[in-house]
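Quick one: Lipase domain-containing protein from Manduca sexta, structure tokens please.
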Amino acid sequence: MVTMFILYTKKNPTEGQLLNVNVNKTIVKSNFSPSRPTKMIIHGFIDTPLSNWVSEMKDELVRAGDFNVVIVDWAGGSLPLYTQATANTRLVGLEVAHFINTLQKDHELNPQDVHIIGHSLGAHTAGYAGERIEGLGRITGLDPAEPYFQGMPTHVRLDPSDAQLVDVIHTDGKSIFLLGYGMSQPVGHLDFYPNNGKEQPGCDLTEGPLVPLTLVKQGLEEASRVLVACNHVRAIKLFTESINGKCPYIGHQCPSYQHFLAGKCFHCGHGCAIMGFHADSTPGLISNKNNQTENEVYPSEEHDTIGAKYYLSTGKELPFCQRHYKVSIQLANPKGAESWVQGFLKVTLLSDRGVIRGMDLTPNNYVKLEHGTSYTIVVTHPMDMGGKVRKVELSWEYDMNVLEPRSLCILWCNDRLYVKSVLVDQMELPSRGKRNVDFSSKLCTPKREFAEIPNRGSASFYDNCSR
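--- reply ---
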């Protein structure tokens, strides 16, 4: 097995240059410059530098800034058997460490300027390298591999001590017995769990004609990924989109994804972090004044993030990044209303910038609503409303369930929903200063205390609750 290091820069964005630190002229005659930040990509099991995602990520990195982008080719050691590939990660980690340490010694590379991005086994390979590089700047782990690593001591797997910043995206954290390939345990300074870090939207093959379309558009290699490891590969796609995307991925520290969806950790007072390429610009990662460089970042002791989980939701296709909206419905309880009703809710939001139509507020089947209480859910959409919501249209459909006799509503019950007001928040961006919500709108019915929404009907609410 021979590990190769292939350099791309803005001067050679498509034709790679082979670097060999043991042959000095390959470095001197290349476009490598120690004054630039260095980004290294390490692929995982049964992968090669020829994989679509490697070239896509490399292209986005080259476009994003003046970087040395180095692809680590260990294809000879990443092929089956998995047990052998796992063993090879230690050797490849040693070679990556030797590569960086030699560039430091002979070519003035500062390890703080090096950022290693590893997928699956490549994430642990980056960890093994980081153990042997003093002052390595950053490692991004993209769904680090679970088998032989989950629950193991820190010296066996990726962990926060491997670099000054270790940020991790978990997308396939089901047990390996349920065909999950990624780790579920936190292993970095910042651990992100999009869509709970287990099942990714768009990866359920029963949802639609995903595979045939992929076969036609992107070839057999990409189709096989969809079939075998769609959730596992999603971490790559999210990171790649984050490099030059305008929509920020904001993760919220929360006890669970269910708490997050219920809007209980919606504001950054609970702790926020930026997922993906720009994770190092997360507030709370502060400059180390004691070192020579101002670019070094690490989590401050006041906001220790190790072991915390950051949750967010994404879309099922490009663009994966979505704007998050918290919708709270305050239910009225007038005389004649049933104590509870069950059914389906959809909402349309209108602001000065545009309209979002028909967002599903009951995505996991019907919901039971108790009059006199409130119902809150976090939903996502690609569109940024860009300001206060001026109008909301709420649609209601009653659901009769034969397994719930009290829900059967034929002659003698009231299937209407009574709504006092609707509150809409857009998720804020994390900032160093005071909490500053992009918008928070309370909407009511004109000249009435509440709206009476019939089955399969709708009602409009406006931002005129000041009366």
